[in-house]
Amino acid sequence: MALDELKSALPDYAKDLKLNLGSVIGNSELPQQQLWGTVLATAIASRSAVVLRALEPEARENLSPEAYQAAKAAAAIMAMNNVYYRTRHLLSDPEYGNLRAGLRMNVIGNPGVDKTDFELWSLAVSAINGCGMCLDSHEQVLRKAGVERETVQEAFKIAAVVQAVAATLDAEAVLAGA
């Protein structure tokens, strides 16, 4: 299912999502690698097979093999980190912040693509997974690297729309008995 098919699969009550999906992907000012890496990473993070199947082929076409793997790696590592750091943040005992994580995160230091792109994808996945600590961390790295707020916002707008499309289509499938 291509992007247009994904948009037409949305029900009438989700017209805003249809328009937003076309806008955040079709009218994005992000460079192709940042755009499609963000789309792929957030499609994976959405946990929706329908959305991932629809968006992955175009992402693969628009990404180098290295960027394709790095976007998937961002979704994978943030799936772990977002749970770990969100939990550490939510626990009332601040001493957990003094304990060593002891989790391998080597891909963050050597993602195989421009670090800024990987940070942007990690931020977008963190938005879907709701980890404020990770959002702050990735946003600070991006801003220190000279990335404008509008670019950061573009990434979490993509995350918001991809997640909403996933939730809507998955709910419709359940309601239809699929």
TrEMBL record:
EC number: 1.11.1.28
Domain spans labelled Carboxymuconolactone decarboxylase-like: 94-175
Keyword Disulfide bond attributed: yes
Active-site feature positions: C131 (proton donor), C134 (cysteine sulfenic acid (-soh) intermediate)
Record field: catalytic activity: N(6)-[(R)-dihydrolipoyl]-L-lysyl-[lipoyl-carrier protein] + a hydroperoxide = N(6)-[(R)-lipoyl]-L-lysyl-[lipoyl-carrier protein] + an alcohol + H2O
Superkingdom of this protein's organism: Bacteria
Xref: Pfam families: CMD
Endoplasmic reticulum as UniProt keyword: no
Covalent S-S links between cysteines: C131-C134
A single GO BP: response to oxidative stress
GO molecular-function term, one example from the UniProt record: hydroperoxide reductase activity
Keywords noted in UniProt: Antioxidant, Disulfide bond, Oxidoreductase, Peroxidase, Redox-active center
NCBIfam families in the cross-refs: ahpD, ahpD_dom
HAMAP family attached to this UniProt entry: AhpD
PANTHER family per record: ALKYL HYDROPEROXIDE REDUCTASE AHPD
Function: Antioxidant protein with alkyl hydroperoxidase activity. Required for the reduction of the AhpC active site cysteine residues and for the regeneration of the AhpC enzyme activity.
Subunit composition and interactions: Homotrimer.
Homology family: Belongs to the AhpD family.
Name by which UniProt lists this protein: Alkyl hydroperoxide reductase AhpD
Upper lineage: Bacteria, Bacillati, Actinomycetota, Actinomycetes, Kitasatosporales
